[in-house]
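Record passed on here:
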Amino acid sequence: MMYLTGFHAIEERIKTGRPCGPLLVAKAGPRAKEIVTLAVNHKIRLERTGTFELDGLAPDNRGIALHVEDEGSRADISLENFIAELDENAESLVLVLDEITDPHNYGAILRCCDQFGVDLVVCRNRRNAKHAAIISQTSAGAVSWVAQAETPNLVRAIEDLKEAGFWIYGADMEGDAVYKVKLGGKVALVLGSEGSGISRLLRERCDGFVGIPSSGRIDSLNVSVAAGVLLYEVKRQRAK
């Protein structure tokens, strides 16, 4: 069983209208009471429970916890279906995550994706329930809204995106300043792990590399911060 415990995560999941529940309630402060009202309005079943019992089911709860069966995410979208439904002439933005294994980083990236209009996140690793709970809480509920596709082969996914008309740009400290690169049309950004960056096979398939000019004394930005900066620049260019 999996339980969402963050207020934002619970609230956003209920708003999607996707199956969930019951909502377990041990104690309800003002914020929790708002969510209880939301749950009632969406016909989500409520169950009163003791604090000790709820702590055993969801240790990081804040008086309430929502039971879900599907990890709280939209990671059931296939890349093939996404490509098939694309408008040939429309702009589209895809984020490819290469070995982003820290669930806190993953959740923070999803929050950026929700804010800056990413159409799809593509990743390789399936997350377990423990990681899914962290991702949902860290993303402040964005995991319930951002479309995600899991694939066993990111190289093949990149090739499929290129065949569908996407330009592939890898994030790299030594890349061209992101604000100097035209990022309209169909674009896929590839983010690598903080430890080793983008893998060699994916780098070989990138059409170019974009970087974030900086003047700091440490090596680089955290990957989730870098994602936010890069995605904002794409949105800024497309708003013109």
User: Anything to note?
Assistant: The CA atoms of residues 34 and 181 lie 45 Å apart. The beta strands are 2-4, 23-25, 46-48, 64-68, 92-98, 120-123, 148-150, 167-177, 186-192, 208-211. The mean pLDDT is 87.
